[in-house]
Design a protein that fits this description.
CATH class: Alpha Beta
Strand content: 35-45%
Number of strands: 9
Distance between the termini: 29 Å
CATH topology: Nuclear Transport Factor 2, Chain: A
Helix content: 25-40%
Shape: globular
Order of helices and strands: EHHEEHEEEEEE
Largest sheet: 7 strands, mixed
CATH architecture: Roll
């Protein structure tokens, strides 16, 4: 699903999300540099990572994403876009991120529910927030 008032903005955001996907692929293989280059350097950036906690400010975000990249390594990564929304200088995407890894023949892959918020800064899109958590089946009890 997409929602946008300006088709040119949607094309720009989709291209930026493509760059994010390439960078996340590298991130999942132990190389966070390309992903970090896409982040805003503003004090208000935030991350709520699947490993827990939250961090505010680029230095803290960078430290967490770098550490996560070094401790988690996956064989492949792909994203399933559920929603992208663009409004002037702010956009977001909601995706399922599929991480695959075999260890001694055992599947240790996972799927994250991931939301990223983007802001146009000085004419370029930047990541300003990321929230990811592990998708797990839930049995409704109501």
């Amino acid at each position: 699903m997409t929602n946008v008032s300006d088709p040119n903005s949607m094309a720009e955001v989709r291209a930026f999300i493509g760059r994010c996907h390439e960078a996340l692929t590298q991130q999942s293989r132990g190389h966070p540099e390309r992903l970090l280059a896409l982040w805003s350097r503003a004090d208000d950036v935030t991350v709520m990572a699947a490993i827990g906690g939250y961090h505010v400010g680029f230095d803290a975000v960078s430290e967490l994403l770098s550490a996560a990249s070094k401790t988690q390594s996956f064989d492949s990564w792909s994203a399933e876009n559920l929603v992208t929304y663009v409004a002037e200088d702010l956009a977001f995407s909601v995706e399922l991120e599929h991480y695959a890894r075999l260890v001694d023949g055992e599947d240790q892959g996972m799927t994250l529910r991931a939301t990223q918020i983007y802001r146009r800064e000085d004419g370029q899109w930047r990541i300003v927030h990321r929230h990811g958590d592990i998708l797990s089946p839930v049995e409704a009890k109501w």
